[in-house]
Write a structure and sequence with these properties.
The complex is a heterodimer.
Chain A (H helix, E strand, L loop, with lengths): L2 H36 L15 H10 L11 H17 L13 E3 L2 E3 L9 H22 L3 H32 L4 H7 L5 H4 L1 H14 L11 H4 L9 H25 L23 H23 L5 H32 L7 H28 L1
Antiparallel strand pairs in A: 1-2
Helix pairs in contact in A: 1-2, 1-10, 1-11, 2-10, 3-4, 3-10, 4-5, 5-6, 5-8, 5-12, 8-12, 10-11, 12-13
Chain B lengths: L1 H28 L29 H29 L1 H23 L7
Helix pairs in contact in B: 2-3
Classes of the chains: A mainly alpha, B mainly alpha.
């Protein structure tokens, strides 16, 4: 560890933080424009060409806002909570690779990789950082000395830890498929086939669970405007609010990056383009471009969900997480393991049993859910 | 490999620094004219009654305890998932037994109504 390597880490970290912050700013713009389009409006179009300067105007406005500290709030925690929320949202992406090995370039005698840290327990790192994200929100809610904020923080905690189980189990099926927890190995294991195809239900569970993890609609109970004002950030204003908001949107970006990496082939091309010019083996520069395109599409999916689905009731939210997602994802881990074992010992064709059987399991789960809801409807009538 | 963790530490340091800088920017440029009414906790225009942080429903604790139980299960699944291909059929049966035991607890919790919210 020399001075040069410390400098390299700091610069890389700084550049990546700046990219994420810029991504946050333009994600708010992207979301507002896309939502407006879906609702047959125009959206922000005044500041700059096409409204492109809108995020900058928002940021400047927030800097010049007065910040209030509610009476009898826990001053230290109230100050620290936005930072505790923001840090995990940004550092969770540290282990994700953005380009193939062929894209590493030498600079001042050092080889610069397209990854902050290449650790061999990448998935474990992501899981642990995702758990830490709970603290900031619950501390923000608790330290405000406000009933709405408190309730928002509590709801958010309960929801995040409930859906973390399904999230963790969907990570386990990825590990079983890739036979490694290192992110580069996981991406390279998707060379011949994306895990999205091998484990489609696992991918859906991952996307649903992460929507709940980041408190996005339709799971945005912690900040349900109609009941809780703004939930855990009711009392925040100015830059502190901006940090909480930033954390929320950077979490969205982060989970889209992670989803793209573990289910959609990361920086790799479509599996059927393997030996063409579009492959990252032949054109390494396309790696980050692929990640960007995948993240862009996944983000649009999240915005689309927000525009389309109504908010889910809290008891149903918990029931869905505990009674459907948890057993289903456990079953999927087992199905994946059995399929791989059969493919390894008997016939490689058994690999295709995994998506078929898991789709059947997902269908059974949906059927069970439908039946229960219909029975409840019947009992009420 | 350990050096990679130092890189993560540097990254965490940078993010914390960015957070502090942002908050300090807001403190420097924002007006500071706090009054008693402004400092009152927001409650949709009503004067707040009682303390802001009060007792919470016990269900939240129940969820937390259940979470620990099943999160430990996930933690046990992770090392198994990594060495699974080496263990073969033995590993699969072993894990089936483990999950079956946990399923008994899961069904018990379900039947006792621990998973019901209302």
């Amino acid at each position: 560890m020399t001075f040069a390597s410390i400098l390299e880490w700091l610069i890389k970290g700084f550049v990546w933080v700046m990219i994420l912050l810029g991504g946050f700013a333009y994600l708010t713009y992207y979301e507002r424009r896309a939502l407006a389009r879906i609702q047959v409006r125009i959206g922000p179009n005044r500041a700059g060409p096409l409204g492109l300067l809108q995020p900058i105007a928002d940021a400047i406005k927030l800097i010049f806002k007065e910040e209030l500290m509610p009476a009898r709030a826990d001053k230290l925690l109230f100050f620290l909570a936005p930072i505790i929320t923001l840090t995990p949202a940004l550092v969770i992406t540290a282990v994700v690779p953005f380009g193939p090995e062929g894209l590493n370039f030498p600079l001042f005698g050092r080889v610069i990789t397209w990854q902050i840290a290449d650790i061999n327990v990448g998935i474990l790192y992501i899981m642990s950082i995702a758990s830490i994200a709970v603290y900031g929100i619950v501390l923000a809610g608790w330290s405000s000395n406000n009933k709405y904020a408190m309730l928002g923080g509590l709801r958010s905690t309960a929801q995040m830890i409930s859906y973390e189980l399904a999230l963790g189990l969907s990570f386990v099926s990825v590990i079983v498929l890739a036979d490694s927890t290192r992110m580069i190995d996981i991406v390279e294991a998707q060379k011949s086939m994306w895990f999205m195809v091998l484990q489609p239900v696992g991918m859906v569970i991952f996307l649903i669970a992460t929507l709940a993890e980041v408190n996005r609609s339709p799971f945005d109970m912690p900040e349900a405007e109609q009941e809780l004002a703004a939930g855990y950030h009711s009392e925040y204003g100015g830059m502190k609010f901006a940090l909480l908001f930033m954390a929320e949107y950077d979490k969205m970006i982060a989970i889209c990056i992670i989803a793209a990496t573990i289910f959609f082939g990361g920086y790799r091309e479509f599996w059927f383009l393997q030996n063409t010019w579009f492959s990252v083996d032949q054109t390494p520069i396309l790696g980050p471009v692929y990640v960007f395109i995948k993240v862009f599409i996944l983000l649009f999916g999240m915005i689309w969900v927000r525009a389309t689905l109504p908010r889910i009731r809290y008891d149903r939210l918990m029931a869905f997480g505990w009674k459907i997602l948890l057993p289903l994802s456990l079953a999927l881990v087992f199905l994946t393991a059995t399929g791989i074992l059969l493919a390894q010992e008997v016939n490689p064709l058994f690999m295709w049993g995994i998506p078929v059987v898991s789709l059947a399991a997902g269908f059974i789960a949906i059927l069970g859910m439908y039946q229960t809801l219909r029975r409840k409807e019947h009992a009420r009538a | 490999m350990l050096l990679e963790y130092a890189a993560i530490a540097a990254f965490i340091f940078v993010t914390i620094l960015v957070g502090f800088i942002a908050i300090i920017l807001g403190m420097l440029f924002g007006p500071k004219k706090s009054t008693d009414v402004k400092a009152m906790p927001y409650e949709s225009g009503m004067n707040p009654i009682g303390p802001g942080t009060r007792r919470m429903p016990v269900r939240f604790y129940l969820i937390a305890v259940l979470f620990i139980l099943f999160d430990i299960e996930t933690v046990f699944l992770l090392p198994w998932a990594i060495v699974f291909r080496k263990l073969g059929v033995f590993g699969l049966v072993e894990m089936a037994v483990f999950i079956a035991i946990l399923l008994v607890g899961y069904i018990y919790a379900w039947k006792k109504g621990a998973l019901e919210w209302d």
